[in-house]
Amino acid sequence: MDGGAPRAVVLPGDGVVARFPGILCVARCPDPAPLARLLDLCREVAGAEPGRPLARRLASWLGGPDAPPDALVFGTVCAAGEATAVFLTGPVGARVGGAVLSGADAAAWTDRLVAPGPVRLALDGPAAPPAPLAGLHDLREGVVGGGGIELVGAPTVAPPVSAPAAAATAPPGSINAQPTLVGMETGRAAGTAPAPPEAAPAAAVALGKPGPAPAPPPVVPGTGQLPAVGERPGAGQPPAPGPRTPPRRSDAIHGVPPDGPPRPPLEAGDPGGTGTRSASGGPSAATPTGPGPGEARGHLCSNGHLNDPRSRACVLCGVRMNERTGVLVIGTRPPLGLLVFDDGAAYTVDGGYLAGRMPESDERVRSGELRSIVVEDRSGAVSRVHAEVRVEDWDVVLLDAGSRNGTFLAAPGDPSWSQLPPGQARRLLPGTRVRLGGRTFTFESTSGAS
To answer: Where does this protein have compositionally biased stretches of type Pro residues (predicted)?
Structure first.
């Protein structure tokens, strides 16, 4: 095995540990049937970024008519774009970077998005009676007995891959690699006790976001060619550019850093367009049709980024825009912001959400129309279905869903709270704070619309 690749170290215990592409899972139950169903759900979504699909399936399963018994205890840690998705129920704990979570702290389950980092996922609490698990174990697939799993060792680098190709192309030891006996060992078999959480290497792999690769050979600036043999790299060339600007919040929202040289302004266009669909990124002569799901009418900047027609500058590349910046076209609407909770969990606003203590009890969540945000509040003031976040054209709006204790807002820069009337939609401006019971979140956005 490559000495630089991370290893999945299985910790001793009485449960089942599984490692699928993009997913780490640990579970315990006296009955093997719920364990088999859990592993099947993981297999169905395993791939490049399975965090969100798996969380939705697990929530539907736990809240549905075929819910498993309370004796089932499990946790999953998955790749989810720029974040790591953690789902825990019962006495099981997870440590991802600096975030420490426990399923025992929630009445239903713990569902969080956290920043990537070193991973440790382990069962807590008393051991369960032994169960006949022989039919579940498969060393070739990566399902073994144990009480937890920890990723240790230096990260490896792999370019983003699609879900069907993830298992075939991901490097050994990566969270997206198909596990084999190589790179997967048990703490007992290795003859050493598992390292305590604080001893985990700082360079341990982050789910789906491996670390930097070794620097490639230098090239002669402006030529793309390697230096000649015997020539000192960089000799006679201008000094290397200084450090890049630190990432901004727009990186997390849009996934594309907005740095780079200034772009030329757009030429004036026809402001009277009604919105034509453009698959190539430019105006189309096709018959105008309405926007479909996830689409909106907007203006394209000179680099092909779709923007809110009210924006004065492109939110991705900074090109100045005005009322005569091109025609209105219909295209895929980019994410409109982030919902950043007081515990650091962040949710990308690229569709609707339903927030509450048990949002999966609502049919719109079970059908997939809305995604769930489980809000855990020790005060007990958060309703099962508390508030809804909608995306309407280019606006993000909030509605109280008939909560028992109300939904409160604070305008950007205003320390006072005002209650949102039930059923009344309120547009969220960047910096708006929202309070649900004893919990709060802030809407962050790079939108240039006023």
So the answer is: 211-220, 236-245
